[in-house]
Write a structure and sequence with these properties.
This protein is mostly helical. It has helices at 5-9, 15-40, 42-55, 63-79, 87-113, 123-147, 166-186, 190-209, 218-234; strands spanning 248-251, 254-257. It has a two-stranded antiparallel sheet with strand order 1-2. A hairpin with a 2-residue loop joins strand 1 and strand 2.
Length: 261
Amino acid sequence: MLSNPFAALSASVPPAIMQIYIVAMALLVVAGTLLDIIHKQSATYFFNNWRKFTSRAQRQVSGGRMASLAVQTAVIDVMASGEFCNLQRRVAHLLTMYGFVIYLVTTVIMVFAYPTPAAPTPAAVVALWYIGILMVCAGGYWFWFFIRVDVVAEGHSPFRLVRADLFIVALVLSVTFALAWACVQAAGNAAWSYIFLGLYLIATTVLFGSIPWSKFSHMFFKPAAALEKRVAEANGTMSNLPPPADAPRKFGGGLKHARHY
């Protein structure tokens, strides 16, 4: 039977410690994103570019039209990942994204609302926690082993890791160790439970602590870039943002699909 692994952990680790850890991870996300924005000057770029193509606008975009574009961006580009032209890549991304959201939300609920066995966790919350993990594993491993660029064909080792891989690797390892920890703990194996818990905490800390060097912060920048592109098209100004990386491109009169991580 599925159970709240954090409630069981409260027998040896005070719930307050688990709650402080989650707050610390949230602060790392905020600090890391701000540091990334300052270091890469992303906000400055977007605001300057916004003023530039707004000043060259051939027609005005009304408030209603702007609201419509914002909704389209949220639904198509964010919720449906419309930037991906390749169906397999889009499905893998959606599985990973929604699984991660479900996993995060249910983790917060279990740790803050049901931290001990004295407050029984609703079965739906526990089930969603496991479902979120499985969705991330399905999308993440699918991407890594079947959709990722064929590094062997490019003369690299299949085990080659670059900084761009940091986010997906840390994310998949974090949820994988979370699943292993929960299952081993439920089976009553204390030694392996603590081993997987330690690996889970290490991978999770790397995931949220490496934002300035990983692709984590892209989830905040991409909606802004998508909205900018839609507004530029609406006011008659062409944005200088590149097309989706896996969109068809012309090479020597033929069409080839760009391949990327």
